[in-house]
Amino acid sequence: MAQAVSLEAKELSSISFLKQRPRNVRLDLWPFVCAYVAWSGYVLWRLVTIGTEGFYLIQLATYALLAIHAVTFLSGVWSVGSQARLRFRPAGSISQATHVLVVPHAFVGTRDIVPLEQKADAAGVPRYAFSFRKLRFVHSADTGAFTKLKYPSHDTVGAYLAATGLGSEAATAAALERWGDNRFEVPVPSFAALLADQLMAPFFCFQVFCVGLWALDEYWSVRGGGRYYSLFTLFMLVTFECTVVVQRLKNLNDVRALQTPKEALSVYRGGKWAKIPGDSLLPGDVVSMLRDDSGNDLVVQADMLLLAGSCIVDEAVLTGESTPQWKSAIDENDEGGAEARLSIKRDKAHVLFGGTKILQTTGERAARLKTPDNGCLAVVLRTGFGTAQGRLMRTILYSTEKVSANNVETFLFIAFLLVWAIAASGYVLYYGLADPNRDRFKLVLNCIMILTSVVPPELPMELTIAVNASLLALSRLRIFCTEPFRIPLAGKVTTCCFDKTGTLTSDHFVLEGVVGCGAPEGGPEPEAGALQDAKSLPRATARVLAACQSLVQVDKETIGDPLEKVALEAVGWTTLGQQGVRSKDGGPRETVEIVHRYAFSSTLKRMSTLVAVEPEGATATKSHWVLTKGAPEVIRGDLAAVPPQYDATHRRFAAQGARVLALACRRLPAGLAAADLRALPRERAEAGLDFAGFAVFRSPLKPESEPTLGALRASGHQLVMITGDAPLTACHVAAAVHIVVRPALVLQAPAPGTGRGRKGGEGGAAAGGDAADSALLATPPLEWVSPDESLRLPFDPALEAAAALAADHDLCLTGDALAALAATGAAPAYVPLTSVFARVTPDQKELVVKILRGAGLGVLMCGDGTNDVGALRGAHVGVALLAPPEKKKKRGDEKKRGDDKKRGEDKKGSRALAATAGAPSSGPVAAPAAPGAPSPPTAPAPPPGPGAKMLEDMAKKGRPITPFMRRMAKAMDDMAAAQAGAGDEVAMVKPGDASMASPFTAKQGSVAPCLDILRQGRCTLVTTMQMFKILGLLCLSSAYSLSVMYMDGIKLGDMQATLAGVLTAGMFFFISHAKPLATLSRQRPHARVFSAYTLVSLLGQFAVHISFLMFMQRTAHAMMPREERQEPDSEFKPNLINTICFLTMTFAVNYVGAPFNTPLQENRFFALSVNWSTLAYVLLVLDLPRGLRTWFSLVAIPAEMQGQLLVLGGLAYLAAGTIERMARAMFPAPLVPEKGGLHRSRTPMGPRKKQQ
């Protein structure tokens, strides 16, 4: 294989140079051309010299040569490694290479061979690059390594503020050459192309080979059922592959729906403004963003940094959050100054992301570069698939490995059966060659037929039947699956991971009160540490809650962060346009104008506003204030004086599961103008603040969370929480839902310094983030701390220390600690032992899931937002929760009702309310209508449905209306209502939903569907294991019947073979419709075909059945006259041996009921088929009624053998059933170990396998 090449890209594992072979020297072509020429010459010479004697050997050799060529060619389609060997040769240097073999990291897809691009620059120096999954990698002549194409997104703030766009045509051409057009090209292949790809699968090719082989001779009836059975099997496989193609096309079209039309924008190039199409944008372009008054949303067409002005942006397409975000221009007065380097993760409040919608723009007249339309000034950072939207699309398209029926274990099972088939073929060939009268062509053909008959070509179809039955069962529960063969994987899950906010808890917050803020003006002093109601707060505290926010008004509706809306409503203040609020009645009123905002950042963990306060009254004077809120540990460093019990107070409420924000403020010197305030550096504005209290918010637990996770804990699943919330809050919620059941320990890794400004950076953002962020990360000393800080333990990275610690405690890792562990290489030891991950980024969620998979665990991930996409896609089973929205109200009705009373709830069915439908509102209670006020309009009566109209017409015509007609009318009305209601619901897949990239989507707002998926997964897994065993028994019996019995002249008639095929198909169909039990058992199903249980059960039952068959065969031989025996190649004639052998092939003891599936008696159709088959067996043995046996080409059985068949058949059934149950009892599936014993036990999914 080719030598590995130096690589500096975290997205790839390794690359190798290849050189494409010319077509005439490919190893899957020219050796066979030479073989065909030589073989043709030999055949012609033999025909001329010897004649047609032994021509059957020439035929067989020719077919064998064609088959070897076909398999060799197809191996290049099935395997990238084979393709590299057959069609390429290793390249010694980059100058000789034409292609690159790219190997991604484990669990993120398969390797591929891509072309290597070579172009010469202006100096004639060759430049090399290749594209892999929409990412471009370029070769550095200095380092000799390939790196991912970099965009200008990490320059200094001063450089961006001084940007003047691409100044010349040469600069534009160079940028176009480097980054290409701004396009999302997601090609959707044709139905025929995708179907051809599906039909190249190994199993399908094998089925076609079998049909072609059976067509060589009149030997159609060997498999039972004749040509119609084989063609029917082929038809079923083609039909299934067509359904898979249709689903793939639908998924690709859903992804293409993310693409937005590229509209023309005003771009500053070459020193002048011009309208340029959106797909021609290049990094470095300076553009003007303006939303016109037409009401159409402006779609951002690339990632841009806002230089002047402000925007209100809907980022639901990327984050799944329906709350619009306020974006402000970046300012060199922020901490770090003009020399600070941009970090998109940290400075996202200044970045417009591609694909998002701008709802409102506000230009800035004082901007350094005037825009022609008074729009917002921005500079393009990234285009195409380099944008945040492009990353989401790449995650959806490429970030998982394909799961299908063609897995390794299935091939190993076939290889196991093939051993028996080869033994049977050798038996036939050995004794056939000893008979000089045997037709040699038919003899060899018979041996090949044994091989193809023992290896079941219908295996994929049988497995597909089971998976499709489960797919339908889940769809009835409003759970939809885009990758059906992941359903059996759900039965192997050992570890269930959950997001917190919006998944386990509601994303609708309640302001419980404020603590530590002091007494309100003229009020009594509150008790120390007691919560104060939001209606009776000091003016300074209420001012921070009301005016330190980023709420805006769009179409006369206040939108923004739900937490800020709740706080504003709780204190009773009202908004005034875009930049102001007014205090409530009942005291001195004041108007607060927001002059400048320092945006909230997840890295800085705080936000601030500079406001002008103007009390109402003739003698009042205007004053200026800085208002700040943020994480308590961050605000602590900004306070002029830290109150006593500061840390103990906020930790006490955080440990109770509350979200705690610290509030602070400071009065600024008099005489400052608005321009002076905007120019005030952030570090100066936020210094020396006065403490104003802790705001305590709560997010209620969803009612289904605790019982669902309790059931998962009782069934032996490991539970993990992965959230961006604070560690103390996460641990409290985890304890309420059975994730934390032992004393908790939190690994603390405080960020260097105070965490302030661009230089401080959040360590959690570095893991998997931008290179600039990673450079900011320092690894501080780590220690384990209990939530109440009563216990502190030193950190030890050793595996034994991790297991010992997890044996007695539930561990919690923060994002900073996880980044530190990843930097030291200790993450693989601690991540599988951790119960709670807090303050983690979306990239770290994905990292956690991959490490869990690498430890051999079967992982389920449940989340509700697009920030969970990487983790959902990386898990074995990803479950996206898509809560059905509230019905939207007509704007006219909203307007009429809005004049009568205020509503404290979000309008238009926001995601927060959709997740908490029916929960009591946290806002103020609506006042009753004033006397004499008009009552709210009554909703008009719905129009009559089609059923009601039908009854009305019948009544008018005087026709009698029967109860049956009334039931029919009601059914018609219900169907019409359901169809009408469906139009009001959101689509199952839409931009912004986690369902865009999740294999499972539950149209519910709770985690309860996870139980349904796991139950159905276990049911499907058990069913597929049963099918493997039954097919194994059938194939092993076929090996015996097609070898020993065939040489004895025993064969099946057409009716017998057809009946056997129909009964087998019916048995599989009925087994596949087994239903799971309502309760998940702690006992686990066997996850592997090659386990002691499966092999003991399979071989034990085969021994029982084959012993019964051989005994009855010898008994029939002794009783049947010799003249009635048949030769192997003779035509079929009914006889005693054939009758006995046909009746003794029964397998009905493999059905597995409790504790996974419903008992056999409750699987109605399968139970009926077993009962009727048993009755038919008894009637045929006893020859009752007379003449029935002739339908199946059977002969009368002597009376002395009838008793043997009935008694020994019953004993064989009991013996096989006993072996099955003993195997289950002796070799149970391993249970999931506790966290501390994880590294000392073997898990059901098996250890991580090295990627080939």
From TrEMBL:
Coiled coil: none annotated. Residues 931-946 have a biased composition (Pro residues). Residues 891-909 have a biased composition (Basic and acidic residues). It is found in: Membrane. It is a multi-pass membrane protein. It holds the Pfam family E1-E2_ATPase. Its main location: membrane. Keywords: ATP-binding, Magnesium, Membrane, Metal-binding, Nucleotide-binding, Translocase, Transmembrane, Transmembrane helix. Gene3D superfamilies: Calcium-transporting ATPase, cytoplasmic domain N, Calcium-transporting ATPase, cytoplasmic transduction domain A, HAD superfamily/HAD-like. InterPro entries: 2TM_P5A-ATPase (IPR057255), ATPase_P-typ_cyto_dom_N (IPR023299), ATPase_P-typ_P_site (IPR018303), ATPase_P-typ_TM_dom_sf (IPR023298), ATPase_P-typ_transduc_dom_A_sf (IPR008250), ATPase_P-type_domA (IPR059000), HAD-like_sf (IPR036412), HAD_sf (IPR023214). Residues 21-90 form the P5A-ATPase transmembrane helical hairpin domain. One of its GO terms (molecular function) is ATP binding. One of its GO terms (biological process) is intracellular calcium ion homeostasis. GO terms for cellular component: endoplasmic reticulum membrane. Residues 751-770, 883-952 are annotated as: Disordered. Residues 265-395 form the P-type ATPase A domain. Residues 914-930 have a biased composition (Low complexity). The chain crosses the membrane at residues 29-48, 60-80, 199-216, 228-246, 411-433, 1027-1047, 1059-1078, 1090-1111, 1165-1184. Belongs to the cation transport ATPase (P-type) (TC 3.A.3) family. Type V subfamily. NCBIfam families: ATPase_P-type, P-ATPase-V. PANTHER family: CATION-TRANSPORTING ATPASE-RELATED, ENDOPLASMIC RETICULUM TRANSMEMBRANE HELIX TRANSLOCASE. This is Putative cation-transporting ATPase. It comes from Auxenochlorella protothecoides (Green microalga).
